[in-house]
Amino acid sequence: MKLEQLYQEIILDHYRNPHRQGLREPFDAESYQINPTCGDEVTLRVALDGDRVADVSYDAIGCSISQAATSVLTDLVVGRTLDESRSTMNAYMEMVQSRGQVEPDEDVLQDAVAFAGVSRYPARVKCALLGWMAFKDAVGRAAEQGNGAHQAEAR
Amino acid sequence: MTALAAAPLTASELEKIRADFPILSRTVRDGRPLVYLDSGATSQRPRQVLDAERAFVEQHNAAVHRGAHQLAEEADEAYESARARIAAFVGVQPGEVVFTKNATEGINLVSYALSNSSVGKELLERFALAAGDEVVVTEMEHHANLVPWQELCRRTGATLRWYRVTDAGRLDLDSLQLSDRTRVVAFTHQSNVMGTIPPVAELVRRAHEVGALTVLDACQSVPHRPVDFAALDIDFAVFSGHKMLGPSGVGVLYGRRELLEVLPPFITGGSMIELVKMEGSTYAPPPQRFEAGVPMTSQAVGLGAAVDYLSAVGMERVAAHEDALTERALAGLSEIPGVRILGPTDIHDRGGAVSFSIGDVHAHDAGQVLDDLGIAVRASHHCAWPLHRRFGLAATVRASFALYNTPAEVEALLAGVQEVRRFFRVPA
């Protein structure tokens, strides 16, 4: 196993220059997730426009894998419908939990195919999932609340 | 700690010791020799321990303290002999040693025995806690010596207070004054993150001055230097088998005899009774009172063999060897730009756990690069989250040493840290 297979350039690029970082308003739902083994945390907000993901904003402390994974996540879901986002999320989760057994579909996962190497490091899978778990949770909350009802103020 | 006059292990002694540990000769990650620097999490086991466990199971296995047949006699003998040798290893009497699953269970045993003393008509004034009482810990505790006390306070209404840690990673003795409401003072014998050895004698003096019980987490001291609980005048102490060349699944609670004799049980059931009637029961004297159910046996026997192994090397020499490794690691890391060591940077009152950060590289990422080089370290908050929060860090890399580590492995670590800097482009 070579380090470069895990830390592909795409991952290091997103880590050094994360996309859509920071918490923004308005938003429909927020999720806070932690990784108890290393203390990493992410607060992630989802803003919806009808059936579409209008924005994903986040504040995170974590390793390069978790930071880059959250950055890539925003590229893959912002502007897409909830159904499209969920199917991308499922494909991503299947890939990173596959222990290297799933050949990722680059058409669906785009930059996220770089995380295929993570699946060979079981201890790092949680890192690659932290932001995605927050997205899944936030989307679920937003759906419960019904679409379009922006929260004016956070917390 | 007094100055240790013993000599570090020689290269040939070290080679002989390493040959006793089969795992140290394996390779990891594409054929790299294993550099195991995670003994603070769990240590590796020598053949002598594995052989003792196997010999017990193959020749003497029986449920202890139950049968009268020959195997039962032999099993009892092996189990109690292990207890006696382990007790002698830490300077106490066999009757003061209780076998537990691990050190965490030992601390829970004490905390639950105290809350069991605090309820019902059996209330024991000496141990009972109530609202207004205080339990004192330190900011450098492992979660195992923090969460059980938080829970004891929740159950009894007592208040948790703590000694703070200085920027240099030492205990700030001025940060807290004990009071006559302080009932328990629980603290580590050696920080599992920073290696800091707090002033045990002074902490014990202050606690006993106000009539508080003292509880020592000795998980990181007993495997690495001579420890004498009786000389430390501590009331309770715990340590774990798997951190001292022994098996997992066995730990030790030491309790001062006169305290164990009056302390109520934590886990109840078979083996720990004196007389059982439908209306109620009375309990066996210690240590049996605290060992309900069929206990771990081959693990206790294995821990006995681990203590024999360490004694044969000599704990003064183990300490001298590990001090030399730690000193070199501290000096080498201090010279690398961007490295920040948590806690004391000299060997004075300090053991062989060295935690650090490298620039703004996350500990997971640094640990991954080291792992790729075959170097096993821990990348985490090391179950001391409040301590990391105090230093403004989520996690650190920890290298921790044992008697089988070599100076060459310390150099491998230092080279590995340089590789982390190169890979993640940490500025000079």
Write the topology of this structure.
The complex is a heterodimer of chains A (155) and B (428).
Chain A: H1 3-6, H2 9-16, E1 29-35, E2 40-49, E3 52-61, H3 64-77, H4 82-96, H5 106-109, H6 125-145
Helix pairs in contact in A: 2-3, 3-6, 4-6
Chain B: H1 11-19, E1 27-28, E2 32-33, E3 35-36, H2 47-59, H3 70-89, E4 97-100, H4 103-116, E5 134-138, H5 147-156, E6 159-165, E7 171-172, E8 182-188, H6 200-209, E9 213-217, H7 229-232, E10 236-240, E11 251-255, H8 257-260, E12 273-277, E13 280-283, H9 298-313, H10 315-334, E14 339-341, E15 353-358, H11 363-372, E16 375-376, E17 378-380, H12 385-390, E18 396-400, H13 407-423
Question: Would you give an account of this structure?
Answer:
The complex is a heterodimer of chains A (155) and B (428). With 155 residues, chain A is α+β, with helices and mostly antiparallel strands. Chain A has one domain (3-143): Sufe protein. Chain: A (Alpha-Beta Complex), CATH 3.90.1010. Chain A has helices at 3-6, 9-16, 64-77, 82-96, 106-109, 125-145, and strands at 29-35, 40-49, 52-61. In chain A, strand 2 and strand 3 (52-61) form a beta hairpin. In chain A, helix 2 (9-16) packs across helix 3 (64-77), helix 3 runs parallel beside helix 6 (125-145) and helix 4 runs antiparallel to helix 6. Chain B has 2 domains: 11-44 and 314-423, Aspartate Aminotransferase, domain 1 (Alpha-Beta Complex), CATH 3.90.1150; 50-311, Aspartate Aminotransferase, domain 2 (3-Layer(aba) Sandwich). Helix content of chain B is 36%, strand content 17%. Chain B has helices at 11-19, 47-59, 70-89, 103-116, 147-156, 200-209, 229-232, 257-260, 298-313, 315-334, 363-372, 385-390, 407-423, and strands at 27-28, 32-33, 35-36, 97-100, 134-138, 159-165, 171-172, 182-188, 213-217, 236-240, 251-255, 273-277, 280-283, 339-341, 353-358, 375-376, 378-380, 396-400. Chain B has an 8-stranded mixed sheet, sandwiched between helices. In chain B, strands 14-15-18-17 form a 4-stranded antiparallel sheet, covered by helices on one side. In chain B, strand 8 (182-188), helix 6 (200-209) and strand 9 (213-217) form a beta-alpha-beta unit. Chain B is globular. The A-B interface holds A 1-3, 6-7, 37-41, 61-65, 121, 124, 127 and B 29-30, 362-365, 368-369, 372, 379-381, 385, 388, 394-395, 423-424.
